[in-house]
Amino acid sequence: MSKLEDGSEKGLKGHFKEDFSLRTRIGLAPRAGHVDRDAPYQRIATEEAWTFPALVKAQVEYLESGAAPHDDSLKMAGLFAHMPSLQEMLQDLGDLRISHMDEYVIDRQLLLLTAPGVQVVKPGDGTAMAREANDIAAEACRNHPDRFSACAAFDPRDVAGSVKEIERAAGLGLNGAVLNSHFQGHYLDEQDYWPILEALEANDLALYIHPTAPFNAPHYEERGFFGALAGFPHDVWLHTMGLVLSGAFDRFPKLRLVIGHMGECLPLHLYRFDWMQGNADGRSHLRGGTQPTLQHPISYYFKNNIWITTSGVGWEPAIKFCQEVLGPDRVLYAMDYPYQQSYDEVAAYDRMDMDARVKKMLMEDNARSVFRITG
Ligand code: CA
Q1: How many separate domains does the chain show?
Q2: CA 50 / ligand 1 centre spacing (Å)
Q3: Is residue 151 part of a domain?
Q4: C-alpha span between 100 and 94 (Å, rounded)
Q5: In terms of Cα–Cα distance, which of 93, 168, 91, 87 is closest to 127?
Q6: Residue 284's pLDDT is what?
Q7: Is residue 206, in this structure, part of any structural domain at all?
Q8: Quick one: what percent of the chain has pLDDT higher than 90?
Q9: What is the pLDDT of residue 31?
Q10: How many Å lie between the centroid of ligand 1 and the Cα of residue 3?
């Protein structure tokens, strides 16, 4: 157990106590370890969450106004808003966050506006919120150029506003864009939203699709797994496969998509995807829908347009499998701060039995290349 996890370290005491009281070791979770402070790689963590007070306020006000449609993602925002130690960590882009990064020996965080972000606030308010978020994130990157990079927020419900904000974010020097998966049951594979994909490609910004509570959350909620145990990965699976099968990557071949949590389990199924695609192409009744015939096997898009991060899955066999089937250049390290943070997990990465060049790609080089991080 790390010092942070048992809350004994001076200055860190109390964090996570009431909200996310950290686990004692169970099952496959990493054993106690030592992080190498002189490792031959920087550690760039690529799915690290943040938020800011005006957004939390806007989410809660809309939720409590009674005017919001039923939206489990908005409900989730309300839940997070009432976790003070979590909010303290999410809202800090300075000393507290950097002290935790130093504790875990994380050189750089890629900041992602946490789920559900601006896409659940009152319609019409999201783009202004995204602008504010992107100005704050850009300022944090300017203040700490050697510690922070950031993805831009946008509200896809406002397509024209999103396109403008993506262009502005590129001008601010931000490193990608983040979407917290579905927005009131809509997904970017719907062609109305394709100007957003076009803008991402044109501005050379990778799109990170991060989970949120799924649209049909009650099915998950009543079984106790609306979050990371099922609802989160399933929704990003839907979003990613929707984009692939819609032909979006044939239309925008340079579009870069990043998904977390070991690719939300998708890489394990590439063989079956290709098999079933061959079986069903030209016979859409076999799989439903009206998708076009793709230019390539489904696995092609996972090896050319899609990158995955290891957020929350510091597990050597899974990482090595994905490096083998996708290529070592397609797997990026992420911690998932502050939701899942563990000194022992960072130590487990150091211990992984991996070619030194491939380890450096995992921990540092791939993040630099996908998110255009310099410095
Ligand atoms: Ca996350």
Answers
A1: 1
A2: 10
A3: yes
A4: 10
A5: 168
A6: 60
A7: yes
A8: 85
A9: 87
A10: 22
In whole angstroms, what is the distance from residue 333 CA to residue 346 CA?
10
The pLDDT, as a whole number, for residue 19 is 44
Q: What tokens does 18 get? A: 């009431």
Local structure of 200: helix, strand or coil: helix
Distance 269 CA to ligand 1 centre (A): 22
Domain that holds residue 206: 44-370
Whether residue 1 is contained in a domain is answered as: no
Both tokens assigned to 318? 């899974």
Asked if 348 and 272 count as a contact pair (C-beta separation under 8 A), the reply is: no
Q: Which residues contact 95 (CB under 8 A, 6 or more apart)?
A: none
Q: How many CB atoms lie within 10 A of CB 249?
A: 24
Q: How far apart, in whole angstroms, are the C-alpha atoms of residue 99 and residue 270?
A: 40
CA 3, chain centre distance (Å) = 26
pTM above 0.85, yes or no: yes
SS3 content of the chain, % helix, strand, coil (to 5): 50, 10, 40
CATH number, residue 83: 3.20.20.140
Cα(338) to centroid(ligand 1), Å = 8
- The answer to whether residue 331 sits within a structural domain is yes
Taking the centre of ligand 1 as the mean of its atom positions, its distance from the CA of residue 336, in whole angstroms, is: 5
Q: What CA–CA distance (Å, rounded) separates 160 from 178?
A: 17
pLDDT value at 242 more than 60: yes
The alpha carbon of 276 and the centre of ligand 1 are apart by a number of angstroms equal to 31
- Which residue is it, tokens 């489904």? 298
The token pair at 87 is 């909010």
Give the Å distance between the CA of 76 and the centre of ligand 1: 13
Q: Of 324, 343, 326, 325, which Cα lies nearest the Cα of 335? A: 343
Question: Does the structure show a pLDDT above 50 at 18?
Answer: no
- pLDDT of 278 higher than 50: yes
Indicate if the alpha-carbon torsion angle 341, 264, 299, 374 is positive or negative.
Answer: negative
Bridge-based pairing of strands 331-332 and 44-50 is: unpaired
Ligand 1 centroid from CA 279, angstroms = 35
